[in-house]
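Design job #97: recover the sequence.
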């Protein structure tokens, strides 16, 4: 059915160019993907029952990639979309893809390999929860200045990167744009257009003070008439105070409510102040404009290069195309169906969990009641036995000490 849908979509978007598409729905997927041998202890991927690619071992690096005929996104839109699901409640691990050039030998693909773009969610504890979007540019991997949050629930989510030929971009999560803008604004592709003029410096006589003491303000003559502290008027000399031994009695001091504090002249705006000094800018002689940011002449493979603490993440529905409508059609159609099915499954699991819990509690209550019943029965039996024993004892007593009338 999915294949039929894919064909319908392809027919509807006949002009679309699909550079790579992978849904792991046929048995040949493993012939298309190359397991890296860069490490000997890579975690292995396995297919899920519903045909997704799942990480299957905890505390492992994963290195897998698939090549395709190389293409350039120069002058075209480029859309990279894929789904990833973390049903294991991912504590720490990557869920992103990389676009690779043909110069990377896929059999040795690893974290050091050159890549064009890295895109997708990255989660580690509560500290790292971001959608990564890294572009390689002139020898550097540029980190995104923005850090939009990924989904951290257990549903399948679609991450979509949309690059436009006018050096703008948009990133969507389940079809909803989470960030967009100019590449030059959100990554440090270009050097700043302007720099502070190195020939300019703050004049030595620049006035930094916005306010000054009012020279016309003078201290009132009676300002100091009220000291900070005064003797407590309510204090009385103790009756047993001995001036000879204790010295002359003085009342303890209190804060004086009349005291006005140290005098300071009022402040007024400084007529000489011209505002903070601003370093004048000049055009940056090192600035080089570039009309083709994030343009890659040789896009030839998609790679999964991640670390996972708790495995179970499922990658699927990878699409690399120049037609956003094709990506959109997946998000609006199949993705909604996938998520609905997963919500239903989660609800059923939850209902089953509750039922199992109820059953277990009821069983325990029954067993508890049975135990109490058994104990009561045992106690009753023991009491009866004790009573009988007492009775026997009485008889014994009778035998040992015959009644007087028997004597
Ligand atoms: Ca699939």
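Job complete. Output follows.
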């Amino acid at each position: 059915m999915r294949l039929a849908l894919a064909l319908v979509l392809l027919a509807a978007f006949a002009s679309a160019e699909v550079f790579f598409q992978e849904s792991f729905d046929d048995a040949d997927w493993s012939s298309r993907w190359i397991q890296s041998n860069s490490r000997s202890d890579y975690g292995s991927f396995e297919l899920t029952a519903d045909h997704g690619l799942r990480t299957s071992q905890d505390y492992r690096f994963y290195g897998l990639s698939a090549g395709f005929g190389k293409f350039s996104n120069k002058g075209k839109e480029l859309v990279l979309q894929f789904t990833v699901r973390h049903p294991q409640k991912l504590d720490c691990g990557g869920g992103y893809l990389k676009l690779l050039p043909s110069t990377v030998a896929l059999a040795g693909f690893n974290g050091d390999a050159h890549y064009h773009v890295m895109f997708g969610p990255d989660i580690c504890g509560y500290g790292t929860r971001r959608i990564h979007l890294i572009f390689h540019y002139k020898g550097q991997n540029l980190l995104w200045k923005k850090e939009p949050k990924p989904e951290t629930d257990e549903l399948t989510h679609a991450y979509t990167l949309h690059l436009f030929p006018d050096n703008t971009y948009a990133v969507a999560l389940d079809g909803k744009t989470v960030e967009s803008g100019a590449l030059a604004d959100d990554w440090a592709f270009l050097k700043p257009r302007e720099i502070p003029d190195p020939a300019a410096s703050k004049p030595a006589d620049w006035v930094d003070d916005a306010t000054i003491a009012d020279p016309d303000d003078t201290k009132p003559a009676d300002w100091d008439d009220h000291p900070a502290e005064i003797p407590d008027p309510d204090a009385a000399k103790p009756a047993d105070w001995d001036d000879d031994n204790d010295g002359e009695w003085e009342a303890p001091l209190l804060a004086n409510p009349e005291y006005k504090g140290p005098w300071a002249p009022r402040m007024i705006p400084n007529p000489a102040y011209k505002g903070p000094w601003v370093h004048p800018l000049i055009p940056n002689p090192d600035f080089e404009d570039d009309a083709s940011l994030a343009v890659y002449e040789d896009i030839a493979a998609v790679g999964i290069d991640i670390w996972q603490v708790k495995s179970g993440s499922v990658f699927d529905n990878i699409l690399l195309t120049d037609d956003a409508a094709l990506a959109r059609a997946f998000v609006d159609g199949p993705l909604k169906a996938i998520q609905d099915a997963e919500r239903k499954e989660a609800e059923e699991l939850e209902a089953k969990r509750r039922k199992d819990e109820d059953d277990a509690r009821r069983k325990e209550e029954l067993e508890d009641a049975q135990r109490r019943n058994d104990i009561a029965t045992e106690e009753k039996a023991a009491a009866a036995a004790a009573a009988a024993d007492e009775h026997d004892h009485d008889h014994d007593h009778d035998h040992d000490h015959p009644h007087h009338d028997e004597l």
